[in-house]
Amino acid sequence: MLKTGKIKPFLWYETEAEEAARFYTSVFRNSKLGRIARYPAGSPGPAGQVMTVEFEIEGQPFVALNGGKQPFRFNEAISFQIDCETQEEVDYYWERLTAGGQPVQCGWLKDRYGVSWQVVPRALPELFSKNAKTAERVMQAMLKMVKLDIRKLKEAAKLGASSSNTA
Structure pTM? Predict the structure, then answer.
C-alpha cells in the first residue's frame, strides 16, 4: 500500500497520466505504482480510460490525472528538487529526466511531460552558506552551468580560500 500523506502533488496530464507515473517510477529507484482508477460511464472522461494513477517517489505520494485538454500547462513556478549526494547521482537523474525533455540552466530541466525538476547536489547549500565571498564565487560558477558540476562548484568555493591564505 502506498503512503498516504496529508498533502500530495496532483499532476494534470491530457492523457499521459499512467505513462508519466510509469516513467517516474522507472527513474527513481525507491518508488512504486499504486492504485489506478478508471473513468466510469457517464463521467467527463471516456468510460474505462485511466482517470488517476497513484504513485510514490522516495516516500512522497503523488497523483496523476488524465484531465483531458485544458488551458493549463506545467511551468517553472512549481518544480521538484532532487537532492543528490554525488556527481554520479546528478548525472543519473539528469540523463533520464532530460530524455525527451529539455535542459534549462543552473540544474533545472523540463522532462518530456513539461514538469520542471531541479537536480541539485547536496553540497550546493553548504557552499552557499560558507561566507558571502564564497557564495558569490559559487553563484557565478553555477550561473554558467546547465547541469551542475560538483567539482567545479567546489573549485569556485576554494578559489578565494587559497588566495586569502597567501595574502
Answer: 0.88
pLDDT band at 167 (very low <50, low <70, confident <90, very high): very low
Host domain of residue 54: 10-66
Let me know whether 90 and 139 are in one domain. yes
Short-list 71, 59, 72, CA closest to 11 = 72
Is the residue at 74 inside a domain?
A: no
Q: Which residues contact 149 (CB under 8 A, 6 or more apart)?
A: 87
13 secondary structure, DSSP code: E
Return the C-alpha cell found at 51: 482517470
**CATH number of the domain encompassing residue 122:** 3.10.180.10
Q: What is the pLDDT of residues 75-117, one digit of tens each?
A: 999 999 999 999 999 999 999 999 999 999 999 999 999 999 9
Per DSSP bridges, beta strands 116-121 and 79-84 are: parallel
